[in-house]
Amino acid sequence: MNSKNLIKSLGPGLLWAGAAIGVSHLVQSTRAGAIYGFQLVGIILLINLFKYPFFEFGPRYATSTGESLLDGYKRLGKWALIVYLFLTIATMFTLQAAITVVTAGIFSFVFHDVMSTFYWTVLILGIGSAIVAFGKYSVLDKVMKVIIILLATSTIVAVIFASTKGFHPNPEFARHFNWGFTDIALLIAIAGWMPSAIDISVWHSFWSIAKSKAGKHIPSVKESLFDFNVGYIGTAVLSIGFVALGALVMYGTGESFSENGTVFSGQLMRLFTSNMGSWAYPLIAIAALTTMSSTALTCLDAYPRVLKPATELVFPKLKKNNSDRWNWLSWLWLGILLTGTLLIIAFFLKGMSFLVDLATTLSFLTAPVLGYMNYKVITGSNVPKEHQPKLWLKVLSWVGLILLTGFSVYYIIWKIFIV
User: Fold this and answer.
1) Domains by residue range for the chain, with CATH
2) Can you tell me the distance from the alpha carbon of 246 to that of 264, in angstroms, rounded to the nearest whole number?
3) Dist. CA 127–CA 107, nearest whole Å
4) pLDDT tens for residues 290-339?
5) Do residues 204 and 43 touch, judged by C-beta distance below 8 A?
6) Cβ(174)–Cβ(255) below 8 Å
7) Which residues are CB-neighbours of 392 under 8 A, at least 6 positions away?
8) CA-CA distances (angstroms) from residue 308 to 61, 128, 301, 319?
């Protein structure tokens, strides 16, 4: 592979990383470290490993066939599209709400006394909607590269500073992971968006197609997978970085994260500044604000982008032309997304952790279904044999499906019949 072409191919994988690095890292990974120290590092890495194939199939399918995963679902049958629509609609409001609440909490903390957290959520959703409705893929592509570099650098520096102070948890406050239902429920909440919800593999396939249309260079399958692996490995490394921050600074101290988004944001900022010094506050504030803003923006862009064609594939009579531009369906889905998101935020604004755990748990429970559909699509007859996954990747897929299904069934049975 040509090195210049590899650099040119970078984009969709970093957009994927921008969507993934947000609540799962700043909130869930940091909470995992604060509650359990380093005990979940191995489990988090395994989660990243077992979910890897289902995300990788997005760019692999799009680059090898020129189609999005939605077109692949259509090849499985209309039932697959209906399942995707149902699962997406069932989870998108809590997902967007959780991301927006965390983003608003950070803005409320950094710009305190400017306006309430709820009005920050309205402002974020309003500005984000305008950008995605009238903006272009290339804008997201360029901005995301800067944001990812900024966040990665500040996180690595903060972890290095924190590690120099040593790891000295107070045994009186140290909590151990015992594989009880409470521990597993929290693990499932963490795993739901670790590194992200599997449905963003569909988004990735659309971004891969948009990348091919936006530039002069059309990435090959190998180049597209290189781009994805850079983003995926980067998110895995950063997730461990945030676990380390939570472990080194909060584990065994008796302190826990607040349910209030603004208070939580202040605690998160202190994780960095207590190790790097007050001089780092502006850098950390910018990194946190841009990271969560980009995640909220990416999700606002993705849902109408995929729900419009998904609806048209299920109901062909609604399709008027082949243009990628927004039409009334795009506006309809954006309006539905904003309405549902604001309603959830209005009811659960003060219970940030509950909202995040609910959103991530729903994503975990839908993962086996979407993972199986992605596997069926990438092994379909329309995918050239040389571009289909190798044996090791197929085996890893089935192991991942078995584990995801097993934990999902265990959680559902326990919630229904025991709790």
Assistant:
1) 3-418 (1.20.1740.10)
2) 13
3) 14
4) 778 878 888 888 888 889 989 988 888 877 655 555 678 888 999 999 99
5) no
6) no
7) none
8) 20, 18, 12, 9
